[in-house]
Write a structure and sequence with these properties.
Elements: E1 4-12, E2 16-24, E3 29-37, E4 40-42, E5 45-48, E6 51-54, E7 59-70, H1 78-83, E8 88-98, E9 103-104, H2 111-117, E10 123-137, E11 140-154, E12 162-173, E13 176-185, E14 188-196, E15 201-209, E16 212-214, E17 217-227, E18 232-249, H3 253-259, E19 262-275, E20 278-288
Antiparallel strand pairs: 1-2, 2-3, 3-7, 4-5, 5-6, 6-7, 7-8, 8-10, 9-10, 10-11, 12-13, 12-20, 13-14, 14-15, 15-17, 16-17, 17-18, 18-19, 19-20
């Protein structure tokens, strides 16, 4: 359909619920909404604002209005981002069919690495699969059958503890998927993740990548991942689309003037991966802290 989306929900300090929805349209526009409200909790469901997630089976639903931005101008500063009029009606109804087990990436790491990464969450689960459903944008229906992934973090996340991270996720089919993470936290670089080979999840011990592009824009990369058992994979990634998600607003006046309005941004790259003769679609998530 040419449609891509990123949705997240979280509970912050003082029981503050937060929901973010970013939708990339085929014409290049970005639709965005941030809702901060008390969370709605149930035994197998969670919701904030117009977004809700159900478990067993996993479903994502949204009904509400989003603001629109031209792709090259997103994201603007925090004030226009929050005050922009939400004029576009959006409805989402998606079900998730898992193709891999839900793997806790922290369990693929040693005790010292888990201690270092604890400010980013005590546990972090990831899972690949297929999303099915539809999106309705201003009355126009987009049927969706798309590869994708979901994740869940347990524990308080302190964004300031992360120097940077690089997350590469791709599903080539029900028999092959890769979730590769390279993160620097508190000055220490840690690699982890897993390779799903259709039978079991194999822990990763090494993750390396190149960067191709210019002007701060990633256009392609080579990725190397190696399991603890010594299996080595060499992948090629070519970026199809990109959207930048503002994560942490800059609150220090001098840094705001020198570095801009955001202390941390996520660059989400929707990517075509190649591994030998096989092709798959996935994401390459790279963080940026302005120098």
């Amino acid at each position: 359909t040419g449609l891509a989306l990123i949705a997240s929900q979280a509970v912050r300090a003082r029981d503050r619920g937060e929901a973010v929805l970013t939708l990339l349209l085929p014409d290049g526009r970005v639709l965005f909404a941030l809702d901060v409200e008390p969370p709605r909790r149930a035994a197998a469901a969670f919701g904030v604002g117009g977004m809700s997630v159900e478990l067993a089976p996993t479903r994502l639903q949204f009904r509400g209005r989003l603001a629109a931005w031209e792709g090259e101008s997103f994201p603007p500063g925090p004030v226009p981002l929050l005050l922009a009029p939400r004029v576009h009606s959006v409805e989402l109804s998606l079900s998730f069919e898992p193709a891999t087990p839900a793997v806790d990436l922290t369990l693929t790491l040693d005790a010292e690495a888990r201690r270092v990464l604890e400010p980013l969450g005590r546990h972090h689960f990831e899972q690949s699969g297929v999303f099915r459903g539809e999106a309705i944008v201003d009355g126009r229906r987009f049927p969706i059958v798309a590869t994708g992934s979901r994740d869940h973090t347990w524990g308080r996340r302190e964004w300031g503890a992360a120097d940077h991270w690089r997350l590469f996720v791709v599903r080539f089919g029900d028999d092959l998927a890769l979730h590769a993470l390279s993160v620097s936290c508190q000055g220490r670089r840690i690699a982890g993740g897993f390779l799903w080979d259709g039978r079991e999840a194999l822990a990763l011990a090494r993750v390396e990548h190149t960067v191709e592009g210019g002007g701060g824009v990633l256009r392609g990369f080579d990725l190397e991942a190696q399991t603890r058992g010594g299996r080595r994979l060499l992948l090629r990634g070519d970026v199809l689309r990109r959207v930048t998600i503002p994560v942490q607003a800059e609150t220090r006046p001098l840094s705001f003037l020198v570095r801009g309005p955001y202390a941390l941004r996520l660059h989400e790259h929707f990517t075509r991966y190649r591994l030998g003769e096989r092709e798959g679609l996935g994401i390459a998530e790279l963080t940026e802290r302005p120098a």
